[in-house]
């Protein structure tokens, strides 16, 4: 452990925490509050990552006069050119970041909106499997689609702050961006859950038929929530692509979705603060094992396997002690409910 870089560890942990917390917040909105069993979260995460990687790689080459039909970004010469040209213009890098965030939100959100049609056709019992299958279809498609690098993916993606020479300042700037977008996601989801729409979502989750009988437009509400949740998942994908500076299809396997599910189960189903807590615990375990296991000389057990064992044990222990997670969902408080409770208290006196 001698020479352990605690500042670097904290920056890397908080960056991954911010990215995964966006996913866990939106999954809790979709599944914990609205009752949509989304086993395909990775689809929208992957779409956002690929949108930003493809857009950035191709546009940087094209705007610098490179013929991408002869030198595509997935070719070795294209990768070298991306490394040379990627950090020349700060304004271009920032502009591509903003463009990627907007397009990724729109594309991922639209895909989530469109996928509500098949999941409404198959019924609530098969929603999870339908979305899970969609994720695998996307991954197989990407493995064979040459313009995005097929199985190799895209590499040397220029980062928005790559023009900053000091690596620590560059990492801190990127962390600030991630935490800023996490704060935006939290504010939006919190406002939604505590609005009349949020109370309708809970009604759908608890009894969809009753909500239909009360005149709620269930398909439209589900489509709206999937659009918002999927759009923010796309933003998380953009942040991942720029952070790792590469994407490939094997980064977006179903295990990513179940990792996010573990976060909301551990933190608390239907509780946004629980989503943050679950994301913080699991990403912390992940980062600690990545740094500590090689230092201990443990080579028999891969950090990936050890991580799943620890996360599984944590979930079992928490569910045995408190089945609703570390931070259970709290009852809704509205001004109208407060008036009714006050009147009931007055009658009982």
Structure description:
With 349 residues, this protein is mostly helical. Helix content is 73%, strand content 0%. It contains 13 helices and no strands. It has helices at 6-33, 41-63, 76-85, 90-122, 127-144, 167-193, 196-206, 208-213, 218-244, 254-267, 272-296, 303-321, 335-348. α1 runs parallel beside α6, α2 packs parallel to α5 and α4 (90-122) packs across α5. The radius of gyration is 22 Å and the shape is globular. The N and C termini lie far apart (65 Å). 41% of the residues are buried.
Please write out the topology:
Layout: H1 6-33, H2 41-63, H3 76-85, H4 90-122, H5 127-144, H6 167-193, H7 196-206, H8 208-213, H9 218-244, H10 254-267, H11 272-296, H12 303-321, H13 335-348
Helix pairs in contact: 1-6, 1-9, 1-10, 1-11, 2-4, 2-5, 2-9, 4-5, 4-9, 6-9, 10-11, 11-12
